[in-house]
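Case study B.
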Amino acid sequence: MSVNSFGRLLRFTTWGESHGPALGAVVDGCPPGLEIDEGKLQPFLDARRPGQSKFTTQRQEPDQVRILSGVFEGKTTGTPISLMIENVDQRSKDYSEVAKAYRPGHADYAYDAKYGFRDYRGGGRSSARETAARVAAGGVARLVIPEVSILAYVTEIGGDAIDRASFDASEIANNPFFCPDAQAAARWATQMEAVRKSGSSVGAVVECIATGLPAGWGAPLYGKLDADLAAAMMGINAVKGVEIGDGFAAARLSGEQNADPMYPGATGPRFDANHAGGIAGGISTGQPVVVRVAFKPTSSILTPQPTITRDGDATELFTKGRHDPCVGIRGAPVVEAMMALVLADHKLLHRGQCG
Amino acid sequence: MSVNSFGRLLRFTTWGESHGPALGAVVDGCPPGLEIDEGKLQPFLDARRPGQSKFTTQRQEPDQVRILSGVFEGKTTGTPISLMIENVDQRSKDYSEVAKAYRPGHADYAYDAKYGFRDYRGGGRSSARETAARVAAGGVARLVIPEVSILAYVTEIGGDAIDRASFDASEIANNPFFCPDAQAAARWATQMEAVRKSGSSVGAVVECIATGLPAGWGAPLYGKLDADLAAAMMGINAVKGVEIGDGFAAARLSGEQNADPMYPGATGPRFDANHAGGIAGGISTGQPVVVRVAFKPTSSILTPQPTITRDGDATELFTKGRHDPCVGIRGAPVVEAMMALVLADHKLLHRGQCG
Amino acid sequence: MSVNSFGRLLRFTTWGESHGPALGAVVDGCPPGLEIDEGKLQPFLDARRPGQSKFTTQRQEPDQVRILSGVFEGKTTGTPISLMIENVDQRSKDYSEVAKAYRPGHADYAYDAKYGFRDYRGGGRSSARETAARVAAGGVARLVIPEVSILAYVTEIGGDAIDRASFDASEIANNPFFCPDAQAAARWATQMEAVRKSGSSVGAVVECIATGLPAGWGAPLYGKLDADLAAAMMGINAVKGVEIGDGFAAARLSGEQNADPMYPGATGPRFDANHAGGIAGGISTGQPVVVRVAFKPTSSILTPQPTITRDGDATELFTKGRHDPCVGIRGAPVVEAMMALVLADHKLLHRGQCG
Amino acid sequence: MSVNSFGRLLRFTTWGESHGPALGAVVDGCPPGLEIDEGKLQPFLDARRPGQSKFTTQRQEPDQVRILSGVFEGKTTGTPISLMIENVDQRSKDYSEVAKAYRPGHADYAYDAKYGFRDYRGGGRSSARETAARVAAGGVARLVIPEVSILAYVTEIGGDAIDRASFDASEIANNPFFCPDAQAAARWATQMEAVRKSGSSVGAVVECIATGLPAGWGAPLYGKLDADLAAAMMGINAVKGVEIGDGFAAARLSGEQNADPMYPGATGPRFDANHAGGIAGGISTGQPVVVRVAFKPTSSILTPQPTITRDGDATELFTKGRHDPCVGIRGAPVVEAMMALVLADHKLLHRGQCG
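Model:
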């Protein structure tokens, strides 16, 4: 019942702080015989890596992942895969201010209330830097589900949404926003430039679609596929909302509008709608699994905010230095990783329970 | 790793089907010495009970809960509390149609795809009737957290939202919709009457607020309070979206707008906003915990829907008989129960880890 | 992390006290489609049932098991199987003495120290009566592993061991001691009669052999098959020791004596010794799995024992009335059940992880 | 449900192989604010370290432990503590023989049967080298239970037992056998010299006593303290038997002989015997917890053993090179570590459940 682990049969545990020597993940339960090396994991880390555009934090981290165990002669052995990423650019700055006072919107106060003590350097354990470990673990998970394709992209930044009619998956890699709509990407570049210069921040919505999984994954009633996805996504730093399929919009539809009628198909049913987002009763239906995730605006802003010190006195804090003006952007690779981890886990669980 | 259990230190396991002899929950980990009897649990079951207004299913179930273990001389003993609710009104109707074909929007096809076999009577295990067991377990959880008040209510039905300015908690019990706005309740009565008569269905949004819990509950990074709440809520039948605090709206705010500034307070900080919904970094901040849950419209409607048979042939199905035209309404007591279960669990977990 | 649950993929949770209305088990994770009814479980309960010879407690319990969920049309559905056994013969005796003082050797003092409160009637939750629920759950587990045969028998009572040369499995059902040696059974009858009459008690050793399982079950390093068996057996009431294969005797052998050489066989290796008890590195080798379990003498004896009251005063207690003079005898069916539960769980786990 | 993790609230996960770059443990759930640094863990690793006498493997490993996370300013933060030990002396020898054939008594065949693939270098994951990670984790666990003293020692090697009358705890550190009886240690030195020279091996029995823990730790019925200890000990490499208190000897006692009478004491009861080994009903009684563990003789011996190749052909293998002629000796620090891990876990669990 480690509270720093996630998953059932494919279970990973992460460790590490923003300013410690390294961070990592131990992935347990990976089936044996899968071809793996660092090169298969690195591209996912590179997608999440900071410092690649002016719209993300300028912290320079190579995020090179090392495999320390669980692999022999280029294949997984079935034993725990230990992944380590060294921290390189923990800039030695003056932390005396955040040591004494709580940054509003951050986890500073909550950690102190819980533990009576905290590593205040760069947010410590609560830093989004930990998501590098998730992304590395997600790379392993992908090997477990070669039949599944996963794609995450940003659909909205600061309230400006993409035009669904202009959706082009090939655009996603062409801009620093994981944006599938070239025109929206152009608008976002202008908007983000202003946000960055003013020291403000904005939120974002990330959507993720998984295709290729069969019907039957998911474990009702308390290991439902959608419930596990909700936990996986809500646990990502800065996430405040999760939707499956039509999500909150479904609450505004009638039963007739929300129906996903079924027709005879070549292999299983053919659907002509997917309001359900590929999951019914907590089990996959064979349709694409669709998840949408809301990221709040980064709490670190230049405008001073009223707050209190550890001693309870009034003060103000603002955030100098490096941060993502829109943390949701780099959330896209993290959402992909969590999707992969949940689906891989459920593939194994289904195989164990239903043969 | 039972997939029909939820929770960490306070862990409950449910069992039972819509048309079996009974359903129940085993609640493990309840601290000893708490005063309890059936009378303390029954009011929550009564709130969820069907057949109380014309806007819910007409199935008549007394939903009397029995305590079979874990209690001695009116107090919890620290051993498992077994709760059982007999099914009384499993009307013997003709199930030959749903035995052969899949009801679209229901879990029928997914269960068959997973298990190759299903109890088709009334949805079997996937029936929302199982939520009676959650509500009973939630009643036990409430005893663990007497310092916490939990209130859930419906904020929106079929796209018609309450007026926040008219919010009156005392109204919630005055109408069959758990609606805190008397005028909205009146409108909903008209709307639901039409929905019911036409054999259609609508969705709803339920909001739940917990007050009184201290800062410090929640277990980062993979036992975060918000992630556990997300799993708890998304796992309820018909739920498609979960928000904490401002949720998706936060994605449209700037960092300045979304800030929750802190000021010196009598006991801990005083906040003048709660965009975060009472949780930062997965840990409670001492502010009210706010969760919002989207229920899709009931899939059971009178309009025939195209579907397929188990043999893969085209057919049509429509739902005669008893069902909730808006399953979200009776979702309110279930959301309350899940909130109680998650908070009680985290209280114990925090005590174990941080003393 | 329910502390009243056991298993990983096939996980069961038990509930109930000696003098409550009923006790039961919820078995989760049972694969779908297995043929099952009460009649398939009852024989195992009958084997454990009290009151069948003068050498066991005279409490009269029919121990009729009811299946309340998870089964449809005679087959498992993959959903939780709820099993209930009503308590019938909770004789209303005077418990005022044990309410006030602690029976030495029993769990009375420990429960009070832990919970500050206890159900003192017949030992409450700590009563061996709970093992009826394990045996029922074990009956389900057996359906999961039709390829495995499990046989437990008593090899020693009160220090008097069977003669291995006279081992005859068909004798086990011919005497009330689960004894595979007719001559030993005759001796034990004499010995036990004296023990019973004097109000004393004796210990026993139970051995259990499982054959038919393939090589490859077990999950190193912290889900080893032998470690799980050790936990399963040590958790049975009155058990104080567990051995796999040669156990403690292996500690007195040389490496040459303890070797289990391998030779080419028809399907996998052929072994000509089984010192290891069928498990190497926590994984089954395909040889019979051999476990030996030590039961202490029943703590309930007629000779008064010094003890203290709840208030800390000196007193004496002795046990009148119904109990097993050798609790190890009826331990045999319980050991079988736990073996079945562990093996079935590992079969599913192996299938999940290694396909 | 990681199968490479152990514990409930204090949960550790180990990773690493004999011949990989490193091995380690992630310890989750350690309470915040405990003073810690590498120097507090290293002595335990040093006690287990190979190459310190001629009676252990000559592999030279400094076993320097590094703390990579979870510690700030010399104190635990409540976040995961990542511990890493680099492998230094993975001698590059020729593994072609063990790559092709299975060493009898080792896990080689079982791993291949399970995974279809294995890291054969030095036993891979099944090497006792992994116990270094347990010992490091155990060092953290000790910080959680400062009230408890733990002492493990070898009571028997190759069938030659210590004289209990000569027990002297201060002798344990005076010989390479963790032997509390100076005369036995002298005899063992002679015996082991012969064993070593002949290339044979012998088994051993390790006893471990924990004192200072209060009554009330342990979580019945499937998280019993003794059951968890049994799993913890049986999971150590080469262990084949576990006893609590009198263990198998208790099975040969009468109820009168096995009684642990209670008398009024200064703080709780006073006992004048401890047949139960400090645990009743799965809960600690406040008496010393006593565990005894049987280690089989090391399977690696110079005498060639019949075995088969991966292709199923007959061959013979014998073990050249470095190994422990009595693996039980260095088992003593590992048994201590597992005792610490189980007790620390149960301290937190008890605090969580019973406040």
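Chain B has one domain: 5-354. The remaining cases will be described in the next quarterly update.
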